[in-house]
Fold these 3 entries.
Entry 1:
Amino acid sequence: MGQLSVRVAPRGAVVGGVLLLLMAGLWLIALWPGSDVMTPGAVLSTLGGHGSISDEAVVYSWQMPRAVTAIGVGMALGSAGAIFQGISRNPLGSPEIVGFTTGAATGALLSLTVLGTAALPTWLGALIGAAACAALIYLVAFNHGIRTGRLILVGIGCNAILLAVNSLLISRADFYDAKSAANWLIGSLDGRGWNHAIPVAIAVAVLLPLALGRAPALRMLEMGDEHARGLGLRVEGERLVLLVLGVALVSTAVTAAGPIAFVSLAAPHLAKLLTRSGTRPLLLSALMGSVLLQAADVAASRVTEHLLPVGVVTGLLGGCYLAWLVSRRAR
Amino acid sequence: MIGMPEPAVRAVRPRVRRHAVVLGAGLIALLAAAVLSVGIGSGDVGLGAAWHLMFSGQSGYDAAVVHSMRLPRTVLAVAAGAALAASGVLMQTLTRNPLADPGVFGVNAGASALVVMAISLFGLTGFTGYVWFGFLGAALASAVTFALGTRSGASSTPMRLALAGAAVSAALTAFTNAFVYFDTASFAQYRSWIVGSLAVPNATVVWQAVPFVAVGLIVALMLAAPLNALALGEDTGTALGSRTGRTRLLGVAVVVVLCGATTAAAGPIAFVGLAVPHLVRAFTGPDHRLLLPYCTVFAPLLVLLADIVGRVVLPNGEIQVAIMTALLGGPVFVLIARRKRLAEL
């Protein structure tokens, strides 16, 4: 039995191919800083190695890290959303609900309003916040072992507490600290350099294949615990591993870009609706998340005159698109 | 066969009595908390003096503190707690999703969006100016969600409703964020409204909101039995003769009225609508005829206690009720989630 057989659904493959093409196209568009800086042709020739030194600086130091971050964060958010919705068997079960992104926000807000970004950089605060929150939720939920249903409920409770703490921090801070905190909470890709892009890329490159390897387990979990156990799956163990992977992916995304709204909730639904499959496809959710975020970023920085934060665009466009799809579905 | 009804009746009476006792105890606790709430505060009016002033018809600074600050605040706490918890129960049943809270219909997002628009675009910086925009926003958002999420004969309506609500919420939140991001001047005003607080600048709003809440609660209690049928599922409910479409429509209308009035007066309070139904359901079970009355009694108790603590815990200033209910109720929710089996996810 030296063969590897992979079942590929034809419609899924087509959708995946289209999404990859969109990702590549949007990546190229994101590399172009605008016609008052460079022409598109100059971007292409820079990529080919024939650009001037200043053009190379613009493309490789300014535009590309942002474009790469958008892809990484989008894929992380999309796949994390599919994982959370799968293990909670709940269409609203995004990582935002169970509190990890709020924990990251608490850490970031502490650094923005209380400690000062000189003492604690925002991204580090976010990372520590997410990790501390995850550890806290796990410890509290551990009662003769871990049942993930209980874990999710404890997460919801902790989310509420941390949201209150965040409100407290913002309402007690002085005005400008509060404003920058509120801005960070919207989620943005502005000013993201290689120090954001590289960690995100590494994290996604490591975590996503791990998650994809567990995609069959996720599909079985979605069918229900009894069915999964009947198929020989170690339900609690698999669910816990998937949860850890989901948390790690979300923390990566939030650390790099702030809590960008809605991508992790919408991407799995959109992927599922496009492929008309019964379950949420993990890889396609990741690709869809990336396309959503890249499109939103291009719209936010190119189409609008003012520089809108990308979190606003994902919310607006993602919300309207999902609303339209929901109303259109005949089923 | 003849002897069968006897044990059943004997089993029902103690259960009903138990619930009556618990509810009665809850009401007494609620009354005590209300008394405390009128008597405690940052002014120098003590408990006995406050009650004397409430009924004596005197005027003066102390009487003003009692009449226009503490009394409306207490009333709003009771109204908001009952309204939010009842809406939470309705939301969770209508979307058949235990993760639903009133915000899931876009209620909070709609209220915030129109409030920030009123402040930013129409320049309505007075509280009474922008407050009822919150109601309008809540109503509009819910109407859109309802229109998107229901289709006659669709068997997957609960999930579509939840998804539609999430979509509408996201779009409206983004809309609000855009305003907050660009209009720094209105951020200050918005910042004071967005954290739900019972310290309303103008008490007239409370008295305007109370009738809405009262009507909404009455209709909600009348919906208890149809909601039980709806919770059994679309087909079973219809087979039992319940008009599920009408129940759903009325349910959404009640949520809009309850949440709209509360959010308009106090700002968005998120935690009560999500957590209190779970906590109460762990004790009463899923029967709405028990669930709703219990929520109407115990949620105000929670909100009142949270508000009282929020008033006294800091040496100067206070912690808003939205924060306090989450800080106090959150750990309780978490502890209960650890032990008992809350609603199946």
Note: The two ends of chain A are 42 Å apart (CA to CA).
Entry 2:
Amino acid sequence: MSNENFEPKIIAFVCNWCTYAGADLAGTSRLQYAANVRIVRVPCSGRIDPIFILKAFERGADGVLVSGCHPGDCHYTAGNFYARRRWIVFRDLLEFVGIPPDRVQFSWISAAEGAKWADTINDITAKVRSLGPFHSYPKLRTVE
Amino acid sequence: MIEELRAKARELLESKTVSVVIGYGQGSTPTITRPVFIRKPEDVHMLIWNKYCYNNLAYYLTKKDVLRLGKPALVVKGCDVKAVMVLVQESQVVRENVILLGVSCSGVENPPGNKCKYCDVNTPTFCDFVFGEKIESKPDAAQAIADVTELEKLTPKARWEFWLKEFDRCIRCYACRNACPLCYCDRCVADLNQPQWIETSPHLRGNFAWNIVRAMHLAGRCVQCGECERVCPMGIRLMTLNKKLANTVLQKFGYRSGYDPKAPPVMASFKPDDSNEIFR
């Protein structure tokens, strides 16, 4: 479904110490990148619960990015190792229930990788734009 | 076999090795059994064993009202023992504080998700005593997850439609949660309301979140005993969902839950060289 004026809403759950700092660096370096992302800062990628991603979709996100420190560089030593296992399993589950895996993306972005942040956002925005709005999820029947 | 089981139960009670024997007793019709809690040696005749002994009695090992009775002896099938192993692994049960009375089982009637057909634990291990003739298991790992592989062959849209139809029937009775031996959280995430993570009304959006979250919370822990699907009043294909994640965990981390109580729980541990393939 193509819609010329469709601007995807991307929610990014990012860890404070690496990816958030990387996003900040992209800003201070005045890098231009897609303005579709809304950033939610958490202390560590290990804090990100799969339910956050479901809630983001429930509330109208078209795509979700989850990003943290590179393995071995976690500010809390091992949080991202646990996160890695969790996402490997959760991604499989989402795919199994029919949510296109391209709508949820995962990355390791360090505090020095401002350019990678910009590239990642541009990338996921383009992918989600081509997938179209994620109507099926928020339109699920609920009490409102 | 039942006479030996009853004799052992009597012996354990008379010697005060255990305070209660938890096993299967006759239900209200010939095809129903119910859990019995035998505290007096003269009551051991209530213990029965037949193909209607569905319940996973490992469920009681985390229930305060049962633990209050004292050290238990538990009648367990192979599938039930796996749940006990996970409870030991997660430090919910001290192995020495329970006597496991294993029974050789050739399958229960109308098993949910076809769990008995490809069982690999017909004669349980890890038990203090085992009753019944040893049964050779005929496991078939590929066939055991045939329902999962069938779904994986569909398009994403067809899978989405399938699961929407399943979850639409969910009435949020939480029978699945209440029957599961590994759902022992004092405060389930579904009951929190500040903040409310999972909508509680039985509509699709909340049902979706509930079932997905429960599947995730059981990832790498579920032993596929099938109780959830058996007790679901709406016949939702919960075993398919749980088997999918069990297979993911096996493929990606080489781990099966319920076979080694000393293994670190798969989702509560990591290897520095776990794959980065899904990460950009």
Note: Strands of chain B lie at 20-26, 33-38, 72-76, 99-103, 129-131.
Entry 3:
Amino acid sequence: MTDNIYDPINPPVNATQPGQAEEPGPSAPPEKKTAKMSKPVLIVFAVACAVMLIVVLSLLGKPAVKAPPPTPVLPRPTPTPERITSAVATQSAFLTLDSHVASLSAKLNNFILDDPQLTPPLLELPLGF
Amino acid sequence: MKRILLLLLFSFLVAAGFASFRTSAFVPQVFASSEQAYKDYLYQSDVYRQKYNDFKVAQNEYFKFNTLTSQQTALAATRDMMAQRDVLLKTYLLLLNEKLNEAVGITDSDRNYYQSLIKNENAFLINHAALIPSVGSINDATTIGRQLEDHYNVLQASMLQIISGISYGNLTGFANDYDKNLADAKALVNANRGIFASEKQSLMDRWLLQISNTRSLYQGKLDAIANKIVQLKVSNNSFNRIDPTSFYEDIKTQLGEGRQYLLDGTAFMGELVRELRYQN
């Protein structure tokens, strides 16, 4: 029986099935190569992006470098010099002088130079007729 | 019987105590004479203010209506106001007199002089007040009112002299206390010369000198004030009158500066006393 040219041709073994994309023939090996090459590039690119993203996120999340807080310096009490009471301090003349000086100081501080009680009366003198 | 007697005695004691408490509550408070004089002055000042307001109202009505009735009302209010004005001035002079009696540091001659000023001004006011009941017209009131106006500069200068003299006397009194304290401090330092180290002794000697210098500055100020008061006195007696108010303001400034010298010197003395208290 001769093949009917109108009969469907049994597709070759390697022929693409309907619905399948036609695979390029042996004359299109570069496409296969680019397809094969783009995958590692893509992978590298994806990995690089992931690394960059991780780095960026870590930098964003990292708190700003702050200066270390100053070490608090506790005040040291200065030693008050000890003063020895003199023999004069117990004398009656000294005690009298002390009280008189304090009394005069108080009197001077309380002294009102311009006594408001002594302000002369304000009068309107001309009658105005 | 005993119980009744004890009860009666107890009741009597309680009643006596209560009665004494009640009577003591009714003892009137006694003020110092200047305090009482000041209260009187304040009262007369209030009365004068009231009478002056009534006078102004009556005067304004007279100017507005110009009737005989309003004129008569204004004249009566004028007489009342003028009389009260003289009373107020006399009360003020009495207050000044009381303050003069209480002031310390004033010499007897100054006190006598100021009291003679008060006496003269009082005599003027009594004579002036005697003329007021005879005021029968607005013209009469104006003429008699002008007598006080013409004399008021002299009256004011007298009052300000006395006020200055009282303040001056008070500061002089403080200066006497200052001198006594300074003399005591010098005696104390000299009597205990061997007790302190030479460095501390030199320090106290220098401080004593500074305290003495402050006293000299204060004395200079006192002398300047005394001269000013004399100028006020002289101008009061002459025909070339000065403005007593501006003179008095100048005197007040100098009194303030004098007081500051005393305050400084007393503070220095306090430091010297503190230094004497300790050996080192």
Note: Chain B touches chain A through 57 residues (CB under 8 Å).
